[in-house]
# Entry
Amino acid sequence: MTIRGKCHCGNISFALTWDPDPVEIPARACDCSFCVKHGGVWTSNPNGALRVLVKDPALVSIYAFGTKTADFHVCTRCGIVPVVTSRLDGRLYAVVSVNAFEDVEPSRLRRTAASFEGEVEDSRLARRKRNWIPNVEFSQGV
Ligand SMILES: [Zn+2]
# Structure
């Protein structure tokens, strides 16, 4: 299936291909200090492919904190964070926000709490390589 999502104003949108169709989609409520403040709930498929379209890059703020190994892509017009990326060994990995989904039955989401605080950086990056979407492309324009 292709899961579509976007920020509230539509400046940042994405299409995530997920084959075969998932019976359920993991939805991890992250307990890091930033995600607690904005309600970040993320999913990824290590076999998926993600296409992100940014209409106006001037309206995207990249926010990084802590280990500064993950970039939160914040739409500065509407404040939504649809995607997070991390560059590991030259490859771009990503997770997407289930809160930005447009066309997914909420009953399909398997919500869990996720705690990565206290994880050392090496194991954090190794986990991203295992679990995050490894095939990510950004494009710009209308
Ligand atoms: Zn927006």
Notes: Residues 121-131 form the longest helix (11 residues). The mean pLDDT is 95. The radius of gyration is 14 Å. Residues 7-9, 11, 75, 77-78, 80 surround zinc ion (CB under 6 Å).
